Amino acid sequence: MASSTFDTFLQNLARVIARVLYRSVDVHDPDPSWSDRPAILVANHFGGFADPALLIGVLAKPPRFLAKATLWDVGPVGPLLELGGAIPVYRASDGATSGNRDTFAACYRALAAGEQIALFPEGTTHDDPSMTRLKTGAARIAMGAMAAGVPAPVVVPVGIHYEDKAAIRSRAAVIVGAPIEVSAVVGHADPSDRDAVHRLTEVIDERLRSAAPDFRTWKEAHLLGTAAEVALGASSLGGSVGYAPRERLAGLLGRAPEPDRSAVSTAVGRYLDAVEAAGMEGPGVRPSALELARRAVRSLAVTLLLAPFALAGVALNVVPYLLTRLVGRLSAPPVTLATVKVLVGLVAFVGTWTFWAWVVASRWGWRFGSAMFVLAPFYGGVAIAVWERLGAFWRLFGSLRRSEGGLDAATAAGLRDDVVRAVEAALVAAGRAVR
Amino acid sequence: MNLTRALVVVIVVLPAVAVSVVAVVDVVRRRSLGVGAKVGWLAGLVLVPGVAALVYLASRPSIDEPLEGFGDAGPEASGRLDALMVAVERRRRGELDAAGFEAAVAELGVGAPPDPL
């Protein structure tokens, strides 16, 4: 079993890595009361190793993950899983499943001890825009735990959303759905009751699809996501709207019946066409020269003030940053790149900070070495912030230079209002479509 | 004032004051920050001058204000959308029946009434 000290270390490490690799990790958990209860977390599995790493970073306490038993045979991964308290699952596709009796027993023990367990009920990681068919393991563990005397276990659906699985500094969101009271769905049915297991699995499937990305195509995901962003008030695409509200709204729009769903796609398509026709990127409105100058001065002032720290951050972090960025350009499926990105980032950044700490400690002592281990990621964060600020300003300036007039504010606002109206109508239709 | 002290003032104190002033002005003017977040940041900027300003400016999104003349959707519109999202989510979870959902929609003043047929 993992020690609480190791849990804390693991969680802090996951948080630092998440801050480096993602521009933002937005969490939506409207009812966090489940975090004090024996809970079985079920999550979609679109990001390989990035999924558990992200969950460890954002959850109140790290859960014990169920992982396929074959991972214990992969070099140093086995001892790491053991340290993190992971529980092996023996899949039929990998051979004998007799060891799963121990797996279930380990889950019941963990839940009875007040721990939480987490699993990916799709059973495999993938690059589809919607979840694959869920396996029944989560329902059987929940019902078995109740039969074993664990008081009132809940199943908590967790949706993990990535803006771009391969890119460094993209956005991510974790959306926690409404917890499922196991006894309210199946009473105190025995886990050998197949009908009850399937009934609970259906409820888990429905709740998890509501929290996770679940679209027909990637094009639909993109259009509805953009519509959500525009409707929620973004004046720059990819800008100020939180990624979790964007994904929540996009998911609900995906539930709207036709023709309301298509009406949203049409309205946002018109908005995007107008933005593109005007030669703009991001914001669809041309700011006044005065406002552009104001932003330029502000960006320049902040950049100059932070420059010494940013330069130190670049010097200390440029090697692992470039290494992680290069990984994203490899020719491989996005889900593979998501895994490799986290692993390379973890090793490269932590290794580099350790190296600098060792260099400083060997010269000025361990206190200065420890300070360097803390300052290296901090200055790296300052460097990234300055770089992204300049990049955003440069993109705005460049798109303005290319455009011949841009969209006037009234036209852009009119197109945006059309998107808002279509989104509201689709939401109402989605609510009315529930039977 | 000796040379060392003068250098500390020029290299550390003045930039720290400048960064703090920029951060305070930005916090006060930023429309995307709630009252609680503004109070929290201002307290941090006062209690830990310099360092808190660095943290604030480093963590601040680069461009998050609506462009002049465009405006944002407005608190009324985004609040209505948020309330509508919650109503649909509750309806999907079975916490609202059809009549309750229609009442929520009517209260928000969104969309046309359902087709009686």
Map the helices and strands.
The complex is a heterodimer of chains A (435) and B (117).
Chain A: H1 4-21, E1 22-28, E2 39-43, H2 50-58, E3 64-68, H3 77-83, E4 87-89, H4 100-112, E5 117-119, H5 137-147, E6 154-162, E7 170-176, E8 180-181, H6 182-186, H7 194-211, H8 218-231, H9 243-254, H10 260-277, H11 289-327, H12 334-364, H13 366-402, H14 409-432
Parallel strand pairs in A: 1-7, 2-5, 2-6, 3-4, 3-5
Antiparallel strand pairs in A: 6-7, 6-8
Helix pairs in contact in A: 1-2, 1-12, 5-7, 8-9, 8-10, 8-14, 10-14, 11-12, 11-13, 12-13
Chain B: H1 3-29, H2 35-47, H3 51-59, H4 74-92, H5 98-108
Helix pairs in contact in B: 1-2, 1-3, 2-3, 4-5
Offer a few descriptive terms.
A: 435 residues; alpha/beta; 3 domains; 8-stranded mixed sheet; 14 helices; B: 117 residues; 5 helices; rod-shaped
Q: Per the principal axes of the C-alpha atoms, what is the gross shape of chain A? A: flat
Radius of gyration of chain A: 24 Å
Overall shape of chain B: it is rod-shaped
Question: Uncertain runs of chain B with pLDDT below 50, 5 residues or more?
Answer: 63-75
Stated plainly, the CATH topology of the largest domain in chain A is called Glycerol-3-phosphate (1)-acyltransferase
Overall structural domain count of chain A? 3
Q: Report the largest inter-chain contact.
A: A-B, 51 and 43 residues
Head-to-tail CA distance between termini of chain A: 45 Å
Overall average pLDDT of chain A: 84
Count of extended strands of chain A: 8
SS field, number of helical segments of chain B: 5
The helix-and-strand class of chain A reads alpha/beta
In CATH, what is the class of the largest domain in chain A?
Alpha Beta
> Proportion of β residues of chain B?
under 5%
Going by CATH, the homologous superfamily of the largest domain in chain A would be Glycerol-3-phosphate (1)-acyltransferase
Cα gyration radius of chain B (Å): 24 Å
Count of discrete domains of chain B? 2
**What is the end-to-end distance of chain B?**
87 Å
Based on the coordinates given, report the CATH architecture of the largest domain in chain A: 3-Layer(aba) Sandwich
